[in-house]
Structures are given as structure tokens and as C-alpha cells.
Amino acid sequence: MKIIKKLLTNPTSLTGILLLFAFMVIAIGAPWIAPPPENARDPYMIPRDGFSTTPELPNDVHPLGTTEGQYDIFYGVIWGTRTAFRIGVVITIFTAIIGLTIGSFSAYYGGWLDEVLMRVTEIFQAFPFLLAAITLSSVLQTIYGRGEAGPLMFLAKLLALVTFGSNPTENVDPIQLQILTGMLAIITFGWMTYARVIRGNILVVREKEYALAARTIGAGDMRILLRHLLPNAIYPVLVIASMNTGSYVLAFAALSFLGLGAQRGYADWGQMINFARNWIPSLADHWHIVAYPGLAIVLFVLAWNLVGDVLRDTLDPRMRGKGV
Amino acid sequence: MTTYIIRRILILPVIVLGVTMLIFAMLSLLTPYERASLYVQDVPKRQGAIEGIIEKYGLDDPIHIQYYYWMMGQRDPDTGKVQGGILRGDLGFSKTGASSVAEVIGRRLPATAELAVWAAVPMIGIGIALGVLSAVHHNKLVDQVLRVFSIVGWSIPTFVFGLVVLMFFYAKLGWFPPGRLSNWASQIVQSGAFTRYTQVNTLDALLNLRLDIFWDALKHLILPVTTLAYLNWAYLLRVTRSSMLDTLRQDYMTTARSKGLTESMVVWRHGLVNALIPIITIGGLVLIGLLNGVVITETIFNYPGMGSFLAQAALSLDVVSVLGITFFSSVVLVAGNLLVDVLYGFADPRIRLK
């Protein structure tokens, strides 16, 4: 309760929360704010108004103008909010679960398991994150491009179920599959901070008297870990989760911008800015193709970072002012 | 100190080995057919040729044998030449670069290094200076403004920042063009009259005493350098600030003041020097920032380095090139981290004198 009160009274976090709230309203209200055309097969594909290559400045029909290929920017920015929430939240959930599992096992059992898991973590950290994500998504796109149902298809279906609510018994929609490859790549190389932080915290609480007390009354390993240790060690994970949601959205936007994330025409902010690459010499006239989707990304990521910044100061006074 | 360094050096091969395993794991997700392209420069037109290659290079062999071949290379039964083997520096053939991946890296690395070094100087300098400023004026207006600046900076994607500066300084004002050199300069650089000592344009221009070319190269560097540096300022600022705040609270700072030193002397000589020690530890993160940053920055500014090549190769799903460059970057990062650890050991007497 104290945390929530602090978050709501601090002007920094309040700004963040209000921004997030506004984005949430936009995401939920998307079908009313920017109704998809009647015959649309997938509302996430931005409707086109003709096929002319030259972007159009904001006008009566297109309040924020159009990109190259006449994709409506207003529609894309509105529906892109949903995409951003989905991507940020789902990646955060998966990375946190992986990191929590590895970190808590590593700390709780210690010994050779700890040694092995921590070396594995270090190996994953030996890659520059974005390069690793680019690499893995290009490998995954090759594999999924074959359309064969291998063991990796199971992962894609699981992720599709969580992200898009797709039916796992059906084939994954190819448009969604391309987004899932980018998400999988980010998840694979995005869990290490959680593992290290939770490991450090469990190492501390493991020595506490209540852990010993639980053991003496005969509680099993899993019970001690899940009921006694994790709840006492999990707060910093909230901070990292909030800070990371922003950076995952940035990473995915970067993949999309490079053409490895969402498909052309999908309501995704990074993908929309990708169009601007062809108009660099005339950006002064076509400023709107960068400005609006760009502003959306910046505000969205900023909102998460503002909340995370205050959360960090509130939850852990030792971390106050430290850049983690 | 020596044991500390030796321990760090001993762990290095373990990490690099792990990196190769992870890269190989990604590679072995592909079918033997797809991997056959590691060994061929062109898809053979003859029927059954691919099967021949798979057979010849054992791409259907058990995974540990393949891993060994991939690491150490393998003797071609026909020519007797050893082929492949990333430990021998053979990273495969790059379709996008139409030459071996190692050659592509050799060709593109100087441009990327030039960009990264030029970016590192203002990045570290300004980042640390702003951090000190923020700490000295703790909780005052300057601190608050810089705090907002760093959170906002953290939230701007590289590509948005890059496109916005291009919008103003290139599209609108025409001051700083994208690319690496103007056409006229590029012609001179490639002509016989200009000696390419290092392939680093700014350095070569100075060595050839061509200030006009130096200026042209610099003009092309300003925007990408700003983009790369801006995104890391925020981070350096925060770390410096918190390290400096810790230092300013120490007793020796009070001692320094009480013996009558000027405030600037106290802050810069006694404070920053001690605060720098923890800052060294984020050197690795700065390197990650640069390695990640060049991919996007080079792509936006049409700058012919390793990063833009990686982006281009990834887009055409040229897995061999992508894996090769990522492997190379990881090795650079691991080496950089080792350097940071050693520097830290030297800088901190508590470790040095152990």
C-alpha cells in the first residue's frame, strides 16, 4: 500500500502512471478510436489508401498523414499501442520466469549447479544484446520460413497463445509468426539480469532464521523456495521488470526498424518508422513519418522508465540514485 | 593482483568456448541443406551436388563431431586443403559480402572502429562531467534537470534520435551528410596519390596532410557520433552521479576541505579520482552500448561499417555472415571485459595490493 501511495504522490511516477493509463485507454479503445475497415481480415494490418509511394502530410482524411505506400499513420499509432503492450508485457513475463527459475535454483542449491548456471548466464551475457537478438531472429526466420512443425513450433505456439490468444491446435498465422520470432530472440537473450539479481537476493534470505525455521518443521525444498524465499527476494524484480519492459519495446522496435520484427504494414511503431529510411534526404518535408510513431515509442518507453525509476527508489533505499 | 589477473584470464577461454557452443547451437537449428552453404560460395546447379557437399563435410554426422569440424576445420578429401574451423579464423562464406566473412570484417572494421572511437571520447567525457555536475548539485535544479534528461535519453530509440538529427542537420540545413566521405573526397582517397595507412579516414587524412579530407570525413562523422554518444550519456551520467555521491560523503573529503583546499580542487582531485574507480566497471557496458549502437547508427547514416553490414545480411537471412559478425563482436566484448577487470584491478589499491 505504501508503495502504491508513494507511486501516486511522486510527480515523476504519477506522470508515468498517467501516461501508461492513457496508453491503456487507447489500446482498449482502439476499435472505436480508429475503427478498422469493414472487410478487414486482420485489424492489425494498417489500411491503405491507394498505392502511391509519396507520403502524404496530415490532412482531413488522414489526421497524422500517411507513410510511403499510403498506410494511415493515425491508425497505425493507435493500434500500435496494443502491439507495444503485448510485446513488452509478454517478453517481460517470459524473461522474468526464466530468470527467476535459473536464479533461484542456482542460489538455493548452490554448489556445482550454481557454478554451471552462472557460467551459462555469463555466456549469454558475452553477446552484445541487440546483435544476438538480430542473429537469433534471422536464424528463427529461416527455420519458421520452412513451415515445418518441429519442436520449435511448440515454442511459437505457446508464445502465440499468450501473446495473441491464438488457438494452439491451429497453425500460427504467418504475420504473427514473424513477430514471435523477434520476441523469442529477445526473450532468449533477455533473462540474465533477473537471474543474477534474484540469485543474489536468495543467497541473502536463505540464511535468514525463517528459512531455517521452515526447514526444521520439515518443509520441502520447493515449499521453502516458493513460499518463504522468493516472496522475500522478489521486490527488485519488479523494478527490473518495469525498467526492462521499456527496453524490450525499444529492442523490438529496433528489430522492426531493421525489417526483422513486424511485417510491412503491421501496426507496429518500429515498423512504421522503417518506411522513413527511404525518405532521408527529404525528411524535412516528410517529418510526420518519423515524428508521430517516434513520439509514441518515446512516450511509451518513458512511461515505464518513470515508474521504474521511482519504484527503485521506493523499494530499495540502498539502490537509491544508482543506475542499475 | 597477479592471481586476480590470472584468474580472469583463465576464465576467458571458458567463456569463449561457451560462446562458440551457443553460436553452433543456433547454427545447428538449420538443416544440413541450409548449412551446406557454409562451404559453398554458390548454390551448385547440378542435381545431387548439395547431397555431395553434405556427405563430404559430414553435415549429417553426430553433433559433437560436427562441432569439432566447425571449430577446428576439416581436411578436404579431394584437395587436401583444410577448410572451415572458426578457431583458424575461417568464419565461412558471406553471400551478402561476396567474400569470406573474415574478409568482410577486415574490410569493414576500420570504419566501425573509427566511428566507435570518435564516439567514445565525447561520450565518456561528457557523461562523466555531467554526472559530477549532478552529484555536486545533489537535489538542486541542475540535478533534477539532468535526471529528467537522462530518463528521457534512455527512452529515445537510437533510430528515432538518428532520424531526427538527420531531419534537421541534413534534410533541412544540409550541414552534415550521411555516408562516410563525399564523392570528391572518396575519389582522392581511392587514387594512388593518397596512401591508406590504416583505412581509418580521419587518421589517414592527417598522415597524408590532407586537411580538406580530414574535415570532410569529420563532417560525415559528427551526426553518427552524436547519436551513438547521446544514448550512452544517460547511463554514464547516472553511474558517475551515484559513485560521486558516495565519494563526496567520505571523511577524506571533509579532511580535504578542512585543510583549506578550494572546492574545485576537492571535487575534481579528491572526489572524481576516487569516484572513477567504480565507473571503470561499467566500461564493459559502454562497449556493449557501442556494439549494439553501431548496428542501428550505421544503418541510418548509411555508413559502411560492420553494423550496417550485419543489418543488411540479417535482412536477407544470410545466417553465416550474421553469426560470424556476432561471434567476432562477442570476442571483442569478452576481451574488453577482461581489459576492464584488469584496469579495475590496477586502479583500486584494495585489489592491487592483495
Characterize the structure shown.
The complex is a heterodimer of chains A (324) and B (354). Chain A has 324 residues and is mainly alpha-helical. Chain A has 13 helices and no strands. The model of chain A is unreliable at 319-324 (pLDDT under 50). Chain B is mostly helical and 354 residues long. Helices cover 72% and strands 2% of the residues of chain B. Chain B is built from 16 helices and four strands. Chain B has helices at residues 2-27, 32-35, 49-56, 63-72, 101-136, 141-155, 158-172, 183-190, 201-207, 211-248, 251-258, 263-280, 283-300, 306-315, 319-347, 349-352, and strands spanning 74-75, 82-83, 93-94, 99-100. In chain B, strand 3 and strand 4 (99-100) form a beta hairpin. In chain B, helix 7 (158-172) crosses helix 13 (283-300) and helix 13 crosses helix 14. Chain B is globular and about 85 Å long. The chains are: A mainly alpha (324), B mainly alpha (354).
Strand content of chain B: under 5%
Query: What percentage of amino acids of chain A are in beta strands?
Result: under 5%
Mean pLDDT across residues of chain A: 86
From the spread of the alpha carbons, the general shape of chain B counts as globular
First CA to last CA of chain B: what distance?
6 Å
| Largest interface between protein chains, with number of residues from each side | A-B, 56 and 61 residues
Can you tell me the residue ranges of chain A where pLDDT is under 50 for at least 5 consecutive residues? 319-324
Q: Please, what is the average pLDDT of chain B? A: 83
Structural class of chain A: mainly alpha
Helix/strand order of chain A:
HHHHHHHHHHHHH
Number of helices of chain A: 13
Radius of gyration of chain A: 22 Å
Write down the oligomeric state.
heterodimer
Class by alpha and beta content of chain B: mainly alpha
Low-confidence stretches of chain B are: none
- Please trace the helix and strand order of chain B, writing H or E for each element: HHHHEEEEHHHHHHHHHHHH
Q: Number of DSSP helices of chain B?
A: 16
Over all CA atoms, what is the radius of gyration of chain B? Answer: 25 Å
Cα end-to-end separation of chain A: 25 Å
Estimate percent helicity of chain A: 55-70%
